[in-house]
Amino acid sequence: MILVLGANPAWQKIARCTRLQPGEVNRLRSLEICAAGKGMNCAQALVRRGERTLLLGGCGPGETSWEEACGDLGVEAASFPLEGGIRNAITILDETTGLSTELVEEGPSAAHGAEQLVQILLEQRLPNAKALAICGSFPARLDPDCALDAWMRHPAPLVVDSVDFTRRLQLPDGFLRVVVKLNLQEWRSILGEHSPEEVLRQAQSKWPGIEPIATLGSEGSIALDTFGGLLRIPSPAFPGTSVLHPIGAGDAFCAGLTTIIGHEGSLLEAMLEGSAMARASCMHRLPGRFDDAELPRCRDDIHFAMS
């Protein structure tokens, strides 16, 4: 089983309009609502990829609809309590320009006892886990150290897509693989305004032995392997089609990384699969989702360069 800690879930509302005009009345062509958040997006992409997956995330009092949504997607779920209802995230897609605007609610704090429950749930599951993915932000009053402490006591292959957790990251003696995937802006918020290549070198200097990845949006991704080699995965254009929903593509990328790392694959293999899943996700109307028929074609589109 793969474990996903997505501590800050969201209900995603995707609105499409022909042209977004700020300050004017905008008519929507469609509105869809789905369970989301970085952890949920990653978990359901893993399930779609064929991995048995347990999502550990927050849930408000009496929110049975969230558990039902997890079940509908085939995601096993375990929850810790939030003080209020799951937050909302709104994506507005301008179909003329292809640009997306994201509005994200702050969300409730974790309730009393949440940290202890997260530790207990992780320590119960980590000994038998193929990998652990930690995705997104942590709600107020949920210290990332509660997850870090559990992982350090029961190390498993780890994929990190969380600024909050990366800032606290420590490496236990004899740790297994650790892959940290952040976008370039997130890396710079931690390590300073450096080039992508230098950011990765700084990361590996701060946390020796990790495999850091920086995603670069439309320019693809770049990584540093444990031997100091730079891996570059360009992002091909989308000929003949427009990007339908770029939100959640990074979460699909994380799912691709996690499934390959969980099966002891190489960093290159993990990046190629992550890039293909992210590309397929961009062509789906919902965040982090992809069509089974699209993924093989996306794999064929991806190539790499090594420095």
Structure description:
With 307 residues, the chain is an alpha/beta fold. It has a single domain (2-20, 29-306), classed as 3-Layer(aba) Sandwich (UDP-N-acetylmuramoyl-L-alanine:D-glutamate ligase), CATH 3.40.1190.20. 34% of the residues lie in helices and 25% in strands. It contains 10 helices and 14 strands. The strands form 2 sheets. Strands 5-4-1-8-9-10-11-12-13-14 form a 10-stranded mixed beta sheet, sandwiched between helices. The protein has a 4-stranded mixed beta sheet with strand order 3-2-6-7. Helix 1 crosses helix 8, helix 3 (114-125) runs parallel beside helix 4 and helix 6 (184-191) packs across helix 7. The two termini are 34 Å apart. The mean pLDDT is 91.
Task: Summarize the model shown.
The protein is α/β, with parallel strands linked by helices and 307 residues long. The chain is built from ten helices and 14 strands.
Percent of residues in helices comes to 25-40%
Q: Tell me about the biggest sheet? A: 10 strands, mixed
Helix and strand run: EEEHEHEEEHEHEHEHHEEEHHHE
- The average pLDDT score comes to 91
| Rg (CA only) | 19 Å
Q: What is the fold-level CATH name, i.e. the topology?
A: UDP-N-acetylmuramoyl-L-alanine:D-glutamate ligase
**Secondary-structure class:** alpha/beta
